[in-house]
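Handout, section B. The chain below has 282 residues.
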Amino acid sequence: MAPRSQPTARQVRLGTELRRLREAAGLKAREIAGLLNSTSAQISQVEAGLSGVSEERVRRLAAHYACTDAALVEALVAMATDRTRGWWEEFRGVLPPVFLDVAELEHHATFLREVVITHIPGLFQTSDYARAVFGYMVPELPPSELEPRVEHRMRRRVAIEGEAAAEYETIVHEFALRLLVADRKVARAQLAEILRQIERGHTVRVIPLDTTGFAGAGSEMMYVGGPLPRLDTVLRDFPHGTAFLDAESQLDRFRMFFRKVESAALGPVPSRDFIHRIAKEL
C-alpha cells in the first residue's frame, strides 16, 4: 500500500505514540523492524502516520515495547482500527486539512476546555458572527471559500450538541463579548446564543476587563480530552496556522494554565448575569 500523502492529525498522533513507546523501550527502528520482519522505512512510515497499522501489529509492538498499560494499548488499537468517515469528510478538498483535523479531534473528545480572549469560541459562534470573522481575512475570501468555512464552523457544534456531546467549558474575556465584529444586531444574537448554550448545560466563565493580576491575555487555547490523559491534545492558533501540542510537558503546562485562568474568572452564575448585562447594553 502506498504511503499516505497527507495523514490526518489523528493518524499522526497514533504514530507519535507508537514512536514514544519504542523510544521509552530503548529500541531503534531497525531493531523493531527485524522483530516484525519489516523494514526501518516501514516502521518510520507508521510512526509518521504515513502508513496504517493493524490491531494485531499494534498489540505486537506494545508487547515488544513491554508496555503494561492495558488502557493505553486499547486506546491505540481503537485509533488504529477507527474507520469513521465523519461529516467533516464532505469538506475534504474544499477546506484546508486543518479544518477537518479539528473537527475529527472534537468528535473523539471526552471533554473540551477553551480559553478565548479576542473572539467568541468557534463552537458558540452564530453564522453571522463567523461570516464576519472569516470575511475579515486578508486576502479577502471569495464566497466559494468563505461559505464552506461558515458551514463547517456551524456543523462543528455537533461535538457539544449531538447525542454523544462532549462536556464543554469555556473561559471568555469580556473583550470578546463586547467586540463588535459586525453590528449590534449580530452582537445581540451572539450573546443570546451563548446564554442558550449555558441553558443547555455548558459552563461559561467570564474574565472582566477590570480583573487585576490577569496577564494571560496572549494565551488562548483549546484543551481536548482524550480517552486517557496521556492522549489529550492542546490546540493553539498562530498567524501561520494551528498547532497540535501533545508532549507530556506541554499538556502539564496547559492544564496548569487553564487552572490559573480559571482562578481569575467569575463563577458560572455571575458570568451568566454578566453576559445578560452586556446584552442589555447593546
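Note. The mean pLDDT is 95. Compare this with the example in section A.
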